[in-house]
């Protein structure tokens, strides 16, 4: 094989690697949630994950997470995290709250690489953790490596 042929083949493989979507796995999402909760198993309930089930464009998806909490000094949400199963990074965002937040609700926009399962997890001041999972379908994916601006 000539040097020129080898370089051309290498460039083709590099381009192929750059445009493939990078994604995590369900096991990586579980590990990220375990790290966030400090090993505590999240219970289902208290968390409301508001996101569209069918998403036209994964580039800027609005989400709102609210948690049933009195937000008092003795009983409040200390953190809320959003985790994805198929994005390049499983932990999308972590919000830190305290009793002075007044309301246990956060809103943001996230990018989604593809159709997948998402989890919202709330860590409470007493150390307990609560969660809600949702399945979403994404028509036009985001988070593709090598994507043109």
Automatic annotation (TrEMBL):
<feature type="domain" description="Ig-like SoxY">
    <location>
        <begin position="35"/>
        <end position="143"/>
    </location>
</feature>
<dbReference type="Pfam" id="PF13501">
    <property type="entry name" value="SoxY"/>
</dbReference>
<feature type="signal peptide">
    <location>
        <begin position="1"/>
        <end position="24"/>
    </location>
</feature>
<protein>
    <submittedName>
        <fullName>SoxY-related AACIE arm protein</fullName>
    </submittedName>
</protein>
<dbReference type="InterPro" id="IPR038162">
    <property type="entry name" value="SoxY_sf"/>
</dbReference>
<keyword id="KW-0732">Signal</keyword>
<dbReference type="InterPro" id="IPR030997">
    <property type="entry name" value="SoxY_para_1"/>
</dbReference>
<dbReference type="InterPro" id="IPR016568">
    <property type="entry name" value="Sulphur_oxidation_SoxY"/>
</dbReference>
<dbReference type="InterPro" id="IPR032711">
    <property type="entry name" value="SoxY"/>
</dbReference>
């Amino acid at each position: 094989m000539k040097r020129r042929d080898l370089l051309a083949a290498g460039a083709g493989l590099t381009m192929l690697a750059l445009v493939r979507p990078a994604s995590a796995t369900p096991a990586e999402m579980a590990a990220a949630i375990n790290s966030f909760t400090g090993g505590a198993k999240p219970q289902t309930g208290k968390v409301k994950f508001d996101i569209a089930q069918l998403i036209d464009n994964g580039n800027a998806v609005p989400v709102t997470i609210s948690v049933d909490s009195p937000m008092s000094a003795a009983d409040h949400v200390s953190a809320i995290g959003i985790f994805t199963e198929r994005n390049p990074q499983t932990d999308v965002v972590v919000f830190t709250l305290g009793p002075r937040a007044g309301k246990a609700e956060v809103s943001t926009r996230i990018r989604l690489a593809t159709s997948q399962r998402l989890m919202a997890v709330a860590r409470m001041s007493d150390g307990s953790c609560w969660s809600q999972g949702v399945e979403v379908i994404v028509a036009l994916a985001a988070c593709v490596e090598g994507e043109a601006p």
